[in-house]
Amino acid sequence: MNLNIDKIKTLGKLKESDYRFRSIKDEMRENLIKQLKSGNQIFNGIIGYEETVIPDIQSAILSRHNIILLGLRGQAKTKIARLMVTLLDDYLPAIAGSELNDNPLKPISRFGKDRIEQMGDETPIEWITNEERYTEKLATPDVTIADLIGDVDPIKAASLKLPYSDERVIHFGLIPRSHRGIFVINELPDLQARIQVALFNILQEKDVQIRGFRIRLPLDVQFVFTANPEDYTNRGSIVTPLKDRIDSQILTHYAKTIDESRQITDLEANFTKDQIDTINSPKLVKDLVETIAFEARKSEYVDSKSGVSARLTISAIENLVSTAERRMLVNGEENTTVRISDFIGVIPSVTGKVELVYEGEQEGTATVAQILIGKAIKQQFEDYFPSPDKIKKTQEKNPYAEIIHWFSHNNLDLLNNISDEKYRKTLCGVTNLGTVVKNIHPNLPEHEMYLMMEFLLHGLAEYSLISKQHVEFGLQFKDMISTMFTNQADDDELNDEDYTY
Question: 187 in the Ramachandran plot: left (φ > 0), alpha (ψ -120 to 50) or beta?
């Protein structure tokens, strides 16, 4: 429809235009069809759902269905719901002053009907943007029927001098005010069962009851619900008759590949211009951040039913860059590259984003976070260097032999906040470390070369070829065998103390 909304200010002008009444579900269906035919991207910023979730949503919209998005936390359910406004017309005409966004050609409220009866074609028209037609409510146990549907307003009754039996004293809730729009309820299981029951008639029969009033309101609403399956047992459930009235249930999921997960993080992470200009974050460290989330989702210490949100990786990469930035500022440097040792700054992002099972709680959240970082390093190691396990099996010459031998006579202390100059000097002190990296990655920029050297040390530690221990303000790499003897001596000393009287 080509409408000049600046000129259409009354009902009469609207009738003269080519405006055509459509229900919101028909409107979304027709706009979706146009976008699909033109090849336009419909859900911009939603990554990894191209062949799964998005086709299901499109089918539901074409079927004119109410929708529930069912999935673990951090799976973009709310973001998808908010993007549905792109399927609405840019502007929609409504009777000016109407609480319910009354269609001028087909009003449903007492106010709208009375206004047209009084003013006829001179009834004033206002234009509502698609963003104004979106309403979202987080379901919490304290949500009431008055919040969602409405209640009798004593103040309105007194000011208008009307009895409580008059329909005009009703104060409508969020759902009637979402007439001709999209209404989203997040975390549906948190809504009390009696409140869920109140939605039955709105979804099916289109009438509502408010304090004994039985009001026929043919509401035109596109409902979208979201829910976490874990909430069904932890905090509540969706009552069966309500589930039966929601036409399409669509399952969401986490990103299936590291690349998809990294794209999501790159899109959502928020960096300042200074951070972008001064902190170099190579692909290796970004992949490590994503791998931490993948490892957490299959970890024996983490509750898989609770899920590991995509917000973990977003917070983690932001903290990682900020840790490198702080180190740079402390050392008075103008730029730097993220290090593996900077991952100490990722730990607060992990501990607040995972729910631990009993075994994880016994280990402690910080320890579990360090374990996950270690597993991520080991998982990514084979993408950059030959696997030590495979070298053992094939009896090939071990490219790491000289590095391992160096640690039989030396220790390496890598402190968290040392300058770039000292960092490079420390790594270059390890025999053959730089040579191995250059042989395998000859085209690396210099700043990434040192990152890869450190990564190699961490990888060898994860394969138990050298030892890595946390010391005050940093890490210490040393020979594995000497570490085992040291630990045994410490245990013996403790045992002697235990039996000393």
Answer: left
Could you tell me the end-to-end alpha-carbon distance of the chain, in angstroms, rounded to an integer?
A: 93
Tell me whether residue 85 is exposed, middle or buried, using C-beta atoms within 10 angstroms of its C-beta: 0 to 12, 13 to 18, 19 or more: middle
pLDDT for 236 equals: 63
Number of CB atoms found within 10 A of residue 355's CB: 15
396, pLDDT greater than 90 = no
Count of C-beta atoms within a 10 Å radius of residue 131:
10
Residue 234's pLDDT is what?
A: 47
Task: Return the amino acid letter for 96.
Answer: A
The pLDDT tens digits for 158-213 are 777 777 667 777 888 899 999 999 999 999 998 888 889 888 878 877 666 676 66
Helix axes 433-440, 420-428, angle to 10 degrees: 90
> What is the distance between the alpha carbons of residues 148 and 139, in angstroms, rounded to a whole number?
10
DSSP 3-state of 64: coil
Q: 346 with 316: CB under 8 angstroms?
A: yes
Where do the domains of the chain lie, and which CATH numbers do they carry? Answer: 11-251 (3.40.50.300), 255-384 (1.10.8.80), 394-501 (no CATH)
Residue with tokens 């740079």: 328
Give every CB contact of residue 383 below 8 A, 6+ residues apart in sequence.
287
Specify which residues 150 forms β-bridges with: 172
pLDDT at 490: 47
307/315 Cα distance (integer angstroms): 16
Give the C-alpha separation, 347 to 355, whole Å: 14
The H-or-E segment that residue 423 falls in is helix 420-428
- Residue 468: helix, strand or coil by DSSP? strand
Query: Mean pLDDT of all residues in the chain?
Result: 88
Entry field: residues in the chain: 501
Distances (CA, A) of 438 to 70, 382, 445, 495: 48, 16, 10, 47
Amino acid identity for residue 225 in this structure? F
Q: What is the pTM of this model?
A: 0.84
φ, ψ of residue 317 to 5 degrees: the values are -70, -35
Phi, psi of 362 (to 5 degrees): -65, -40
Q: What is the pLDDT of residues 88-128, one digit of tens each?
A: 999 999 999 999 999 999 998 888 999 999 999 999 999 99
β-strands 467-471, 474-478: how paired? antiparallel
Is the CB of residue 17 less than 8 Å from the CB of residue 8?
Answer: yes
